[in-house]
Amino acid sequence: MIIRSIKATPVNIPFVAPYRFSYGAIASLTKTVIELETEDGVVGLGECADGDRAADVEVMGVRLVGRDIRLVTEAVRLCVPSMAYSPWDNVLAKRRVFGGIEMAMWDARGKTEGLPLWHLLGGKVRDEIALTEYFAFRDPGPAHPGEATPVEIAKFCAEMIDKHDAQIFEGKLATFDLTTEVDMVREVRAAIGDRELRLDANGGWVLPTAKRAIKALGPYDVAWYEEPVENYEEMAALRSVTEAGLSSHRIDLRRAVELGAPDAIVTNINELGGMSGAVDFIRSCVRFDIGFRFHSGETGVASAAYLHLSAALEPVREASQTLLRWYADDVIEGGPMQPRSGTLPVPTGPGLGVAIDPKALARCHQRYCDEGAFPAGQTGGGYGGHFRKS
Question: Tell me, what's the pLDDT at 82?
């Protein structure tokens, strides 16, 4: 179980149509796929979620060559500074990169031992993992018309129920004027009946706007608001206008306990430093009665890791997010996963239970080479042009 080499490949995963959110609009996702090979010829798969990190992965990988894939704690000491902050190093970036490599270590171990990841994590408590169905205003794609009006978005949601038996819907806010978005939510609620409805503003509102918006949306039985505002203090101030759950991508468990908000953290494996870090963090969330779920936007590699962790850890009860229905390509065999009745089955094969499709990996890498990170097709400021609405 000794590491022979670690290779990283940046890829672009395109959407069938660019979707709009508070940062602008985005036509694809840039990820880094990791292939860790052991001296026995076993290849473990991992993923970095935050763009092209191929060079960083390969530099870090040099430190791990010759190491045992089972010795995760030793690998952390070799790769990630032990302090929370350093003026000489980017601790967060190293933790994210290591998280992708560590995922590959777990996958390689599972493949070597012939066991699925959930087995290595202590067993599973569920066979099906609940996921949300996303909706948003979408610009036209190469072969997709997008959705430009509230009625068109509601028709999309109704179609997802008819075709896929979608159960929980989550939609993007803070992209248009409030009147239009309230119209959208009203139309969606009519289309989905009494199914659970969540709304995600990606921190796009200032506090007064968030209060006005939440009051206006009150009649439509919203179960969760994700990042209606950017910080925890403003989120706690929203308690006076809604009983809905509040969630955030920002990770500060101590502050969440102090303020009583948010109710749940929504993040990925890389932010937590890998599979082991995710297990530890989720257990801490349980201790302080803070919910946890995974967010959307990874390839089939990290998506499989989410499924295994959600299967093995009983506290991950709430539906996690997914954009899988919007993917036009993926790097794994079989292409993008397709939820049915609001769930995906936990993979049963060894390790992550997914395999790279070499042709698909090459195709997605070439797309990255041709387009660059977060390619054209953006509007409203483009990805990274974050603005808050007053």
Answer: 77
Is the model's pLDDT at 378 over the cut of 80?
Answer: no
Q: Do the Cβ atoms of 135 and 156 come closer than 8 Å?
A: yes
Residues 251, 153 within the same domain: yes
Q: Does residue 95 sit in the same domain as residue 165?
A: no
Sign, Cα dihedral of 379, 247, 252, 295: negative
Query: In terms of pTM, does the model score above 0.85?
Result: yes
Q: What are phi and psi of 77, to 5 degrees?
A: -60, -35
Farthest-apart Cα atoms in the chain, separation: 60
Quick one: 268 exposed, middle or buried, by C-beta within 10 A (0-12, 13-18, 19+)?
Answer: buried
- Considering the domain architecture, whether residues 273 and 132 belong to the same structural domain is answered as yes
Return the bridge partners of 247, or none: 226, 264
Domain boundary among 91, 114, 137: 114
Residue-level pLDDT at 375 = 58
pLDDT tens digits, one per residue of 330-375: 999 999 999 999 999 999 999 999 999 999 999 999 999 999 888 5
What's the total number of domains in the chain? 2
Average pLDDT for residues 80-104, to the nearest whole number?
A: 86
Per-residue CA distances from 303 to 22, 40, 204 (Å): 24, 26, 26
* Element (DSSP H or E) covering residue 110: helix 91-113
Find how far residue 176's CA is from the centre of its chain: 24
CATH of the domain at 43: 3.30.390.10
Domain interval for residue 304: 119-356
For residues 274 and 79, give the distance between their C-alpha atoms in angstroms, rounded to a whole number: 12
